[in-house]
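Case study 2.
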Amino acid sequence: MSYQVLARKWRPKKFEEVVGQSHIAKSLQNALKRNQIGHAYILTGTRGIGKTTIARIFAKALRCEQRQEDSNPCGTCNSCLDFDSQSSMNVIEIDGASNNSVDDIRDLISNVQYLPTVGEYKVYIIDEVHMLSTSAFNALLKTLEEPPKHAVFILATTEPEKLLGTVLSRCQRFDFRNATLIDLVGHVKKIAEKEGIQFENDELIQTICIQGNGSFRDTLSLVDQVLSFSEDKVVSEEVVAMALGIAKTSAVLTLINNMFAGQDQQACDLVEKFISENISTKNILSSILSKLFDQIKDHQLPEGISQAEALWVYESLAKDANWILDSLLPPKSLQIVVKKISLRRSFFTEGATLSGQVATADSQKKTLNNSPVEKQETLSTDEAIESTPQVEVSDVNPSTENNVVKEQEPSPVEEVTEQEATPSIDIRHKIQEAMEEESTEEIQVDQPVVAPVEEVVLESGEKSWEGFLKSLAKISPAAASNLEQGNLVTPINVTELQVSVDFAYSVDGKVFYDYMIEDESQKKLVDNLKKYFGCDDVHLSITLLDDEKADEANFISRAAIKEEEEQKVHDNKRDEILNDPIIQNAQDIFSAKVDKVIVDKK
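Prediction:
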């Protein structure tokens, strides 16, 4: 058998094997267990985190004739064997990137009406659905909203924001989470143990997983790449660095220590060595910042380096990163920045020395006796004007350093008359204006500049549950959509100190209830309630009402209420059209009757 890459070989085949997406797996399992199957689902999230995998598991379980108690497919029935054949006519997987024309969708629609050859359902999985053209989407809308009972659509996309709102509103949406570093490391360790892969240390696994950027598929592809450079599945630091084109961890730590110690030449030599090994400038920067962050977080800084200094180094390097990568010579620019950070303390010392010299020069100037400038600094405005000797004033502007007030010393043999000792009205006026401008400028400089604060509450006026949902929809559309599937049992109680929310779902919304009662989902909801209502205490109750209790309480979800309202608008519009005099006259003229009215819901 030919070699199979790890990402395909270890693709999960059961719900519980999917790592990091338990909230979605559990919801779909519950839907299967209660036979509450929607006609269209949309799975969103970044690449390589399990969207297509879960779509396939769900499709297989949906069609399984002997489904297990945990809602997983049995793998042995005719439907499961048909699915495993990879040529099934009952599970059609379409690539939206290459089948994105309106003709492709019309072909799909024309085949939807045919019953499955085996099993109860016919499943259509459309991957990268955002790549469909607008005309293709429009052709799909009607079928997506009202497909035959045997048809189920599962759409997957990495860019849900590109989808039409009319498409999103017709689907149950599930947002996938990026894989955490802990999840990735644990997954790779498990596979390595079964595949007989030996890593010299766990830090190498972590290095590979960091490069995977939260994607299981990307991470396993990198493991495959590393294995191609290794001998007998033994992975060392040199192998990882060579295979991934990154710097060795030990060498990066040495470079950071050189910068902290002020050893600029050694640090620049290491950068040159990395570049000679064909490691990109971006990878060098990324490795330095990553390791420096770990040192700061774990308080493992070299002796003599404070947390504040380490933060300054990290911030300086991070801010210079864009300049380095956008420059004409990124490798040279990186060396300059590394040298600057290494010599940071000498820069500070030189700056302090220069400041001292300037301060000395200023103090020498102020030792002049009876300095008019000094008097103006200590006296009031009127006193300063009265005590000012005869001066030459030229374009007085206190904000310009080159403006000089020159004192004219009277000749020893000349007497200074009273008129000469008093400045002219024009001079007095200019000095008055200059001092007032100087005072105004000082106030403006000292005045703190307050940056505008971004409001969390997006709705103005009295805060309500409706306002909260509108606010939440702008922050997290998926969370707001989940809450729309339920409703308040009692009116929300809002005080200055506490917000009380008594919320419920009916049995029809059990899938959404299961998601909302998870600890993480409740925590996010409570945090959003606190931000919107501006209080620290939130009392949240989420219950599931059976059919009897829901009937007693006349309970109806907000989504159902909206649907009823839309239907009323639709019916009113229909009646308006039928009662139009022109339509009625046309019926009389042709002795006919309108059989059907189609109202555009847009």
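The longest strand covers residues 498-506.
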